[in-house]
Amino acid sequence: MKIVVLDGYALNPGDLTWKAFEKFGEIEIYDRTSYTNKQEIIERIGQAEVILTNKTPIDEVVLQAVPQVKYIGVLATGYNVVDLAAASRRGILVTNIPSYGTAAVAQFTFALLLEIANQVGLHSMSVHQGVWQNNQDFTYWKTPLMELQGKTIGLIGYGEIAQATAKIAHAFNLKVIYWNHRPKQAQAVWAKQVTLNELYQQADIISLHVPQTDETTKMIDQAAIQQMKTGVILLNTARGGLLDEVAVAAALNKEKIYAAGVDVVSKEPMSKENPLLHAKNCFITPHIAWAPVETRQRLMEIAVDNLRAFLAGEEKNCVNQKL
Predict the structure, then answer these.
(1) Tell me, which fold does domain 102-284 have in CATH?
(2) What number is the average pLDDT over the span 35-62?
(3) How far apart are CA 185 and CA 194, in angstroms?
(4) What are phi and psi of 71, to 5 degrees?
(5) 2-100+293-311 and 102-284, same CATH topology
(6) The model's pTM
(7) Over the stretch 209-252, which tens digit does the pLDDT of each residue have?
(8) Are 283 and 115 in contact (CB under 8 A)?
């Protein structure tokens, strides 16, 4: 059996190993494959029966050209890079990697929030630039600092990552409210379920934890922002397309939104035309909430286990139905 990894660099830039896959057959690894050049994608798949992909798209045109493929393992939770209907029609099993990054993403959500509240990076940089050494007083701060205790955090979505974030928020003595598209009972008495409008109106901090669908795309738009408190903090570690980035940038520049912390944007890699790049008090990181080495190792182990199950005639973390 031949296995091809189309875009392995993001998962494994060299600090992990693909060795566990070698027991299943010959493996060919590409760091990157074009997202748009279908001929390159087809040529690299070649005669492989197993495809592992992170963001390289596998659509009907590609699948039509590689009829021997039996399995596609998506090296991520989101699987919209694969045409599931086309895969199902051809009897191809598609799997994903759920729940591998819950702790890391919850942790990173608070990394963004604490950076906004305390500006550690800014002040460390100023010290290294000599500001403290030349200061007349024993202390100084270059921007207002913020205490989180007693503020209200509103979680949009209440899946595993949001629930992990809620626990951290509770430890910081934040009041926790949440909205979920289907009513979901909280696991703790300190988390209160509210309507989306109530969340917009009550939260001092809003954190996004929903998948991007037709219903959620650009859900944080001008109308939503108008309902929010002036001075709200907005956090997004979910999907960039949840934000109307023009509306969010405008609200930052008008100080309706005090600050935004985003690890994802609508188009990645980020375009130099993205309005968030030039917005006031916008903290942007390059989609790294999922990337601690322990988290990526867990992802790799689940990917191996998914393929092992498939070869044993089982279905594990399957996201489509073979027809």
Answers:
(1) Rossmann fold (3.40.50)
(2) 98
(3) 11
(4) -150, 135
(5) yes
(6) 0.94
(7) 999 999 999 999 999 999 999 999 999 999 999 999 999 999 99
(8) yes
Closest CA to 86 of 48, 113, 59, 111: 59
Q: Kindly report the average pLDDT of the chain as a whole number.
A: 97
Catalytic residues: 239, 268, 287
Domain ranges for the chain:
2-100+293-311, 102-284
Mean pLDDT of 157-171: 97
C-beta separation of 235 from 243 below 8 A = no
CB-based contact 203:151 (threshold 8 Å)? no
Rounded CA separation 217/228 (Å):
18
CATH number of 2-100+293-311: 3.40.50.720
What is the residue whose two structure tokens read 């390289």?
Answer: 56
| % of the chain exceeding 90 in pLDDT | 97
Burial class (CB in 10 A: 0-12, 13-18, 19+), 297: middle
